[in-house]
Amino acid sequence: MGTLSYRIVVTDCRTQLSPGKADDPAHPLQKGFSMTAIQHVFKRGSVYWWRRRLPIGTGRCDWVRLELSLNTKERDLAKRIASEVTLASDRLLPALKAKMISTEDARRILIEVARSHSDYLDSIAPGRDARKARRSETASAWAIRLYAAQGDNAAVGPIEERELRAAGLDDDLVGDVRTSLEFYRTSGFGRPGRKKLESILKQHGIPLADVHFRQAEAIYMRGMAAALLNTERRWSGVREDDLALVQAALATPVLPEPRAAQQTAGRTLPSSPTSAQRPFDAIPSVLGSGHAIAQTGTIERNPSSFDEDEELDFDEDDENDAREVEVTPGLVEIVTQAAAEKIKTEDWSSGMDKQHIGIAKLFVRFVGHDQPGRMRQADIARFKTLLFKLPKNHGKSPRDHTASIDELVARAQALPPEKVGLSPATLGRYMTQMSNIVNICKHAGYPFGNYEGVAGLRPKKKGDARDERARFSTDEVTTLFGLPVWNGSAGEGKWLDIGEAVFHDAKYWLPLMAIYNGARREENCGLLLSEIDDDGELPCFRMEYNWVRKLKNVQSKRCIPIHPELVRLGFLEYVAALRNSGHQLLFPELRAANAVTPMGDVFDDSWQKMRAAALPNAKEEGKVFHSLRHWCNNEMKQEGVLPEIRKDILGHANADMNEGRYTDPARLQVMAQALSVLPLPTAGLSPHPIRLIEQVVNHEARPSRPRKRDN
C-alpha cells in the first residue's frame, strides 16, 4: 500500500443505516457512484473507495460501516489496495466480535488477585525492615500501576510526577518509581504469564481472545498494585479485618441448642446455623485504599476434623454464597472521581479538588478503613478532636503523607503550643469539606453509616466579620515601600541592604500591583506578557485562565486598568524589556523547578523577609500579602466607590440580581476612575531605568530546593 494516505469514515449503522439497504443503488449514499466489480469497492466521482460493514458484537444490529478513500483513480491499483484492506479487515473480525470483559468479571478478577497477592506479602513480611519495606512496596505499586495503564511505553512524565507527589511521594520515592518502572519495562517482571491469564479467563467463562488477554493482564497488574499499596495492612500494626472479626464474635449471642441434633457414632453434631445465625456473615475485609470488599458466606471447617460417616447439614447454596462478593469503592476513590467532575464542570475552583482529596485521605488514615458505610458521625467528631493535636503545618512535608497518625501526633507534642492545632478558620474549612465529602458519598450511592451534620462542630465566629481579615493602614504601606527594594539596594543578593541599585523583578512590582489593582497574589504572579494590553487608550491587565495558573472562579476572569502610578514607575517599559528578551511570563524568575509549585509560593519567601524588615509586628497581627488587596478595597470603599464596581475590579460575584445578572461588568474607564481615588503611598518613589535581574537576562531556570533528608 506504499505511502498512500487514506481518509477514513466510520458510521454507526445502528443509527444511520439499516441492514439490507446499504448496497441498494437507490440508497442516498449510492447516488452518483459507479459500482465496480471489485469486492467492497465503489467510485465516488472518479476516485475509488473501499467500504465494508464490520460486526462489533453478536447482535443483529451490532455492526458499523467503515469507509476509506483509496486515493487513486486507477482501477488496477485500486484492486490491489482493496484486497490488502479487505485482508486486514478480516483479521480484525475476531477482536471486533469479542465483548469487553464485563465490569463484574473485572471486579472479581481484581479482588482475587489483590487477595492472593496480599496473602503472599503477608507471608514474607515477618523479619523485614518496616520502613524500607513500606517504601519499596509503594514504589513498586506505582510502577506497576503505570505499567498496567501505559504498557511498554510507560514513563514518569510531568503529569505522572504531579500525581505521585499529590499522593505524598517525596523526591526519593519518585526516583524509586522511575527505577522500578524501567526494570519492569525491560525485564517483563510483574507481568502474569499467558498460562495464568488463560486460567483466569477460563475460570470466569471469558473467551480466550487476544483483547481479553490484554484486559486481564492490566486488571491483574492493578490487583497487584492495590495489594502493594495497602502498606498499612502489613506495617501499621492495625488489622481492621481482625478487629471486625473479634467485634462480630463478641457481639454474637450464644446459639441455642438445635431442636434436631444429628447423632453420629454416638456423638451429637449440631446442624449448621442458618444465614441469620452465622456469627461471621458480612464481616468486612479491607484489602486496600482503592476498594473495600465484604464477603458473605459460611464458616469454612476442615473436613478432616470429622469422621468419614459424618454428614454436614449445610444449606444447598452455601458454596455459592461463600464466593459472592460486593465491591464498594473506597472513600478516596469516590471523592477523587467527584472532584474531577466538579472541576470539569467548574462547580469547584482550582485547588478545591486537592483540598477535598487530601482531607479524605487523612480521614481514611484516621478511621483505619475506607468504607463510607462503616463511617459514623462519631468518627467525624473524633477527627475534629485529632485536628487540635496535629502540627499546624502538617501536610506540607511529603513525609506527612506516609507517616502514621500516631507519628504526626508525637511530632506535635514536641512543638511549642502555638504551632499545634488548626486555626479556627482552617478548622471550619475542614468541617465544611467533610460535609461536602459526606454529600458526595451520599449522591454516589455510598452513604455514611449515619451523619448528623457538622454545624455543631464548626468553631463559632466571634465579633464583627470585618475584623476577621487584618488590613494594612496607609502609613504601614508607605513604610513598606521605604525599603531598599524600591529606593536602592546593595545588590541582587543584598536587596534589603541600602545601596544604589534598583532591580525590577517580582519583589519590586508585585506589592505595587497588589495595592493598585487589588488582584489576588496568584493572579498577579501568574500573568503572561500577552495578558498585558498596553497598545490601547487604557492599558490593562487581562486576568484569564492560562497554562501557568487557573483562576479562583468565573468572576475572576476580568480586565483591570493599569494604575497611572505603575506607569509612572516604569511598568510598561519593564514589560517591553521582557518581550525584547524573548520571555513569556511577567515574572519568569518565579517559575519553580517543580512545575506544580504555585508561583505565589515561590514569591512568598521574599515577601516574608520584606514584611519582617519593614513591619516586624505584622505577622503577629495577622497581616499577610492578601492584606494589601484588602487595603485597596477598603480605600475605594472609604472614597464612596460603589460595591458593584469594587467587585468587578476585585473579581467578586455580584449576588444582587440587578447588579449582577442584568448588567455588564464596569467599563475600563469606570474602573480607572474608581482606582484613581486610592491614596498614593508610593508618591515618594522615583522611577529608575529598567534593570532586570541576572537570572531573567540569562534565561536561567530557577534551581531546585536542597533535598531535605531524615537525620
From TrEMBL:
<keyword id="KW-0238">DNA-binding</keyword>
<dbReference type="GO" id="GO:0003677">
    <property type="term" value="F:DNA binding"/>
</dbReference>
<keyword id="KW-0233">DNA recombination</keyword>
<feature type="region of interest" description="Disordered">
    <location>
        <begin position="298"/>
        <end position="321"/>
    </location>
</feature>
<dbReference type="GO" id="GO:0006310">
    <property type="term" value="P:DNA recombination"/>
</dbReference>
<dbReference type="InterPro" id="IPR011010">
    <property type="entry name" value="DNA_brk_join_enz"/>
</dbReference>
<dbReference type="InterPro" id="IPR002104">
    <property type="entry name" value="Integrase_catalytic"/>
</dbReference>
<feature type="domain" description="Tyr recombinase">
    <location>
        <begin position="467"/>
        <end position="676"/>
    </location>
</feature>
<protein>
    <submittedName>
        <fullName>Site-specific integrase</fullName>
    </submittedName>
</protein>
<feature type="region of interest" description="Disordered">
    <location>
        <begin position="256"/>
        <end position="279"/>
    </location>
</feature>
<dbReference type="InterPro" id="IPR050090">
    <property type="entry name" value="Tyrosine_recombinase_XerCD"/>
</dbReference>
<dbReference type="GO" id="GO:0015074">
    <property type="term" value="P:DNA integration"/>
</dbReference>
<feature type="compositionally biased region" description="Polar residues">
    <location>
        <begin position="261"/>
        <end position="277"/>
    </location>
</feature>
<comment type="similarity">
    <text>Belongs to the 'phage' integrase family.</text>
</comment>
<keyword id="KW-0229">DNA integration</keyword>
<feature type="compositionally biased region" description="Acidic residues">
    <location>
        <begin position="306"/>
        <end position="321"/>
    </location>
</feature>
<dbReference type="InterPro" id="IPR013762">
    <property type="entry name" value="Integrase-like_cat_sf"/>
</dbReference>
